[in-house]
């Protein structure tokens, strides 16, 4: 759960999604500013932390990166339990991964945590020419289900910091910022802030 | 499908030492005669191994005594063994297994929840999860009665059905149980065992340096009047036991330990409870390597030739395995020798027989491979499972060890071979399929074999005993994680206590270590070295679990000083990758294994992977 201090808070965040969708790559881009073309599969889980600043508040994300294969599904609740936020990742060039993302959304909804901030990330935007999942489709699915949708590229870093920023802003007790159900952020002022504050 | 109905599997499964403890004493406190039977069900079984025919049947009861409720499950003794439709082969569990798995009297206050599983096919079963997060293996109700059980419980305690999962019944918020304390006092037994080890090590320090077994004899110094003090040790020494059965030479190494234990028993019998902590603290400071033998240089061709007769048979496989255990193999020998270690070739096969087998197995491989290669695109459209498997393999092979020259670069044919072998395996073992982590196992095997068919069959041989790591229900992983937890409890009680209070006893931070046998923790060369050492199954087939303990012990101080919680611990453990000194860790693990002796082996539930066939030992 997100816990607030005077001007900083901690938030547990979990990444879920099909294998090979880019969960680890998104985290590594966000936490270390790195990208590996052949990022190895995650066995078990990995844990990272990274702090971002939203207005006067800092949010320290405690990030759980999970194994994607259905076989290891039974381990996932251990990692998403008590999470303040979840990023459900799919690969825009792979329709099956979108189907799987929807299943994750359903599963999280069943947990009944109303405060859970959920983001849907359509990753591999750098491969937009091979796109199989249309932005509109993912966007409208996200809106219907109360998530926000962002298309990202861990490879090019596009929208990666924005993704985490948007989550930080939406966390309860973070500063109230007007935001609608879903928006695709393409503007850059945020990016500058992100770089200065979280990519140590 | 109710996804969260599978969540039980992240609890470790509790089946070993706790139950031995209960077998020894709690039954005295909660005898059946003085208790009221609230519920009884016959033909409730537990399955120690994957082999259903080896399940153990018993009587499940809920007892009430002094207003506290207890759950018990006692296996039938073989002569009265009730034949069920299922036990047609009249499998008779050993006394050891019956003692091991018995649930003598677990207070309901210690039970956190009960999962009810009623699969459309097969028997319904429950999984009992304790407050600690540990769980007993599934209890199969062959005559039904789970609903009855839950209804009966509801009459006595508060049970809440989880709103998230209709099959999960929560038993917490049960009134504090006065008897619970008396049961938890049984922890004393573990304290004793650890203390004994501590004394043992301390005495050993000035005396010897482990170079050979003779120096160990010096350890047996202080005579050994048999003690009547602590029955657990006697239990341990009397047991014939896998370590020794498999390996008489290891027994030599163990013997002084056993004698010392008896000496210690004398001392401990007259020692007050208060002094345990003091002695125990010394254990952590003792450098472990005093027990491990000096490691040898790798086995090379000239010496290898001395193990073979003129027709190519390995004359003394035990001696060979011992040699490899202590030194590993020169790289150029791996291709030949791994096939024996993995069980693909028999030690007593000749050059000629092996060549014939190679040709025969190549044909067989081609047939298996053709099974999926001949699936047309049209057919694949209607074969979702095939598409899904192939796609999983495709996603993983392109990111398997690509930094190695052997797998690097675009269109690397070795990556395609990885793919083909894994897809073929998923047809060879269709029930298991492809699981993430198999690629990690296959990569070094292919690298060593340099041959598709031979690599495939070696991989098959490895999966023969490691497939349980990948079971859907994660049972194989759970029993290994539980064994590590029990070994740490035995070998380092302060670390155990720390992990307990930090709520880390599920040991999931060791998941990656165990699932792929440390593949991600070492450089490639060292992974191969470690695997060949593990695959000798020389001192024990569960050496990798002692290795877990050795590494945890090594970093214990840091873990405890920095007060790592589960998150930090997982991050820390993952971050150890590439920083573990393999040779030192192997020595430490050997020390721990010797030190733990029989008691250590008793921490490891029967059927814990790798499950070996007799011809490999």
UniProtKB/TrEMBL annotation, chain A:
Keywords: Chloroplast, GTP-binding, Lipoprotein, Membrane, Nucleotide-binding, Plastid, Protein transport, Transport. It is found in: Endomembrane system. Pfam families: Ras. GO terms for cellular component: cytoplasm; endomembrane system. InterPro entries: P-loop_NTPase, Small_GTP-bd, Small_GTPase. One of its GO terms (biological process) is protein transport. Belongs to the small GTPase superfamily. Rab family. PANTHER family: PTHR47978. This is Uncharacterized protein. It comes from Ceratopteris richardii.
From TrEMBL, chain B:
It comes from the Eukaryota. Keywords: Acetylation, Cytoplasm, GTPase activation, Phosphoprotein. Pfam families: PH_RBD, RabGAP-TBC. The keyword Phosphoprotein applies. PROSITE patterns: TBC_RABGAP (PS50086). One of its GO terms (cellular component) is cytoplasm. Acts as a GTPase activating protein for RAB7A. Does not act on RAB4, RAB5 or RAB6. GO terms for molecular function: GTPase activator activity. Interacts with non-phosphorylated form of RAB8A; phosphorylation of RAB8A at 'Thr-72' disrupts this interaction. Interacts with ARMC12. This is TBC1 domain family member 15. It is found in: Cytoplasm. InterPro entries: Rab-GAP-TBC_dom (IPR000195), Rab-GAP_TBC_sf (IPR035969), SGSM1/2_RBD (IPR021935). The lineage of its organism: Eukaryota, Viridiplantae, Streptophyta, Embryophyta, Tracheophyta. Residues 328-538 form the Rab-GAP TBC domain.
């Amino acid at each position: 759960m997100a816990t607030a201090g005077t001007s900083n808070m901690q938030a547990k965040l979990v990444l879920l999604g099909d294998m090979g969708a880019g969960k680890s790559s998104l985290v590594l881009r966000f936490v270390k500013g790195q990208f590996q073309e052949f990022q190895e599969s995650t066995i078990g889980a990995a844990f990272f932390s990274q702090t971002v600043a939203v207005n006067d508040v800092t949010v320290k994300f405690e990030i759980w990166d999970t194994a994607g294969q259905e076989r290891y599904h039974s381990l996932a609740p251990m990692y998403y339990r008590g999470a303040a936020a979840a990023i459900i990742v799919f690969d825009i060039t792979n329709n099956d991964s979108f189907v799987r993302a929807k299943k994750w959304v359903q599963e999280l909804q069943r947990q009944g945590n109303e405060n859970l901030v959920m983001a849907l990330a359509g990753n591999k935007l750098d491969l937009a020419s091979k796109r199989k999942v249309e932005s509109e489709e993912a966007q409208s699915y996200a809106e219907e289900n109360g998530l926000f949708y962002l298309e990202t590229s861990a490879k090019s870093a596009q929208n990666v910091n924005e993704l985490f920023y948007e989550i930080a802003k939406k966390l309860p007790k973070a500063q109230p910022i007007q935001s609608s159900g879903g928006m695709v952020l393409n503007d850059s002022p945020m990016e500058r802030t992100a770089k200065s504050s979280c990519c140590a | 499908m109710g996804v969260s109905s599978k969540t039980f599997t992240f609890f470790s499964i509790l089946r070993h030492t706790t139950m031995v403890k209960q077998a020894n004493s709690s039954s005295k406190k909660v005898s059946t005669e003085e208790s009221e039977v609230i519920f009884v069900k016959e033909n409730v079984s537990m399955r120690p191994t994957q082999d259903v025919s080896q399940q153990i049947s018993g009587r499940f009861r809920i007892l009430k005594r002094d207003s506290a409720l207890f759950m018990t499950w006692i296996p039938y003794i073989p002569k009265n063994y009730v034949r069920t439709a299922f036990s047609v082969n009249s499998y008779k569990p050993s006394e050891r297994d019956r003692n091991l798995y018995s649930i003598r009297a677990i207070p309901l206050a210690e039970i956190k929840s009960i999962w009810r599983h009623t699969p459309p096919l097969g028997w319904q079963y429950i999984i009992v999860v304790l407050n600690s997060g540990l769980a007993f293996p599934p209890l199969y109700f062959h005559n039904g009665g789970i609903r009855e059980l839950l209804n009966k419980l509801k009459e006595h305690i508060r049970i809440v059905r989880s709103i998230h999962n209709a099959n999960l019944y929560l038993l917490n918020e049960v009134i504090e149980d006065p008897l619970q304390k008396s049961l938890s006092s049984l922890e004393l037994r573990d304290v004793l065992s650890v203390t004994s080890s501590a004394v043992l090590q301390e005495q050993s320090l000035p005396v010897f340096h482990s170079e050979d077994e003779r120096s160990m004899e010096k350890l047996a110094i202080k005579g050994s009047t048999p003690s009547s003090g602590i029955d657990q040790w006697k239990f341990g020494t009397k047991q014939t036991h896998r370590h020794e059965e498999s390996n008489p030479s290891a027994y030599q190494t163990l013997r002084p330990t056993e004698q010392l234990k008896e000496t210690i028993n004398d001392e401990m019998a007259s020692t007050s409870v208060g002094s345990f902590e003091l002695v125990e603290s010394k254990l952590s400071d003792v450098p472990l390597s005093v027990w491990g033998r000096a490691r040898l240089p790798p086995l090379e061709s000239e010496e290898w030739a001395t193990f073979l007769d003129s027709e190519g048979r390995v004359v003394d496989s035990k001696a060979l395995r011992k040699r490899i255990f202590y030194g590993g193999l020169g790289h150029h020998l791996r291709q030949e020798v791994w096939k024996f270690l993995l069980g693909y070739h028999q030690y007593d096969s000749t050059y000629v027989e092996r060549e014939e087998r190679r040709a025969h197995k190549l044909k067989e491989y081609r047939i298996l491979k053709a099974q999926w290669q001949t699936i047309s695109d049209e057919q694949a459209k209607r074969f979702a499972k095939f598409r899904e498997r192939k796609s999983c393999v495709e996603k993983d092979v392109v990111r398997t060890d690509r930094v190695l020259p052997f797998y690097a670069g675009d269109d690397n044919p070795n990556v395609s071979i990885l793919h083909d072998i894994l897809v073929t395996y998923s047809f060879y073992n269709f029930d298991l399929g492809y699981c993430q982590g198999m690629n990690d196992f296959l990569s070094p095997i292919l690298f060593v074999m340099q041959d598709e068919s031979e690599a495939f069959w070696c991989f098959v041989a490895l999966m023969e005993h490691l497939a349980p790591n990948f079971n859907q229900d994660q049972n194989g992983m759970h029993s290994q994680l539980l064994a590590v937890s029990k070994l740490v409890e035995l070998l380092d009680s302060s670390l155990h206590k720390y992990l307990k209070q930090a709520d880390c006893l599920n040991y999931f931070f060791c998941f990656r270590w165990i699932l792929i046998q440390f593949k991600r923790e070492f450089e490639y060369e060292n992974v191969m070295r470690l695997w060949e050492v593990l695959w000798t199954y020389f001192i024990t087939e569960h050496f990798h679990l002692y290795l877990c303990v050795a590494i945890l012990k090594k970093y214990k101080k840091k873990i405890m000083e920095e007060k790592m919680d589960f998150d930090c611990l997982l991050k820390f453990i993952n971050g150890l990758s590439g920083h573990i000194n393999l040779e030192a860790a192997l020595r430490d693990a050997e020390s721990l294994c010797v030190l733990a002796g029989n008691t250590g082996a008793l921490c490891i539930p029967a059927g814990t992977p790798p499950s070996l066939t007799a011809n490999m030992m």
